[in-house]
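Forgive a beginner's question, but might I ask you for the amino acids of a protein and the tokens describing how it folds?
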Amino acid sequence: MSDSEGEAGLALDAVFTVCLTVDCTHGTPSPPSPEPTVTIYQREQQVVESSEDAWSSIEIRLVGSHPLWGHHLWNASRAFASYLDDHPELYSGRSVLELGAGGALPGIVAAKNGAKAVVLTDYPDAALIDNISHNVRVNIPESGRARVRVQGYIWGHPIEPLLALLPEDVEERAFDLIILSDLIFNHSQHDAMLKTCDLALSKRRSTEMNDKDEGEAQPAPCLLVFYTHHRPHLADRDMDFFVKARARGWQCERILTRRYPPMFPDDPGEEEVRATVHGWRLTRS
């Protein structure tokens, strides 16, 4: 992730104004995009083959190249997949929303592990949305695909189209878990992301959700935010997301720190910083 273009060149409000299929300078078609690539995520958790959730890998196709960075399977996405696999109580039998899904690995893990409904979203560009739909078809059995919906969505816009995708029998038209995987480097979009999350996340508390005699209480609805400081000199700008979240009344708790090989080895900045994935859980105060 080169920083040669500067902060403004990586801001999504700048990217969104760019024509994705036409050379806007000359009005001519852009050169053909590179062919898609396929990455295999290998499950870390050991599962008995006869169990219902017995899967060993997920095949993620990535668009060949894209100005919105959808052609990478980010380290945060891998860490997210592993964390969700270890914590099904956050989403099993519940509703999940993934924002800026890219290849949609975390959301697909949630779908495979028993989420009641999963809505996978990214910027409404055909290449991105079609690619997510492809990954759903490849990785989710036909019998379970009705639980997974794919939708183009711009952060900060009305959420009614997303809520309309939830099953009719949900207790509340809202999501119990919202996934943000490697999104907070989009500094100009922090307010828009938080607006969407505030509108979309269920307002129920964990104690309100345990009205049955049997079983354990379900955790409170939450946002999970995983990220890497890809540009170490802008780490403080990344962390402004949590400053703004707290100002809006969210409780922010660090839940994970994990090191991976850096995605962009030749980029400037301390490698240890660029190689580390951080995970946070945000709940309503």
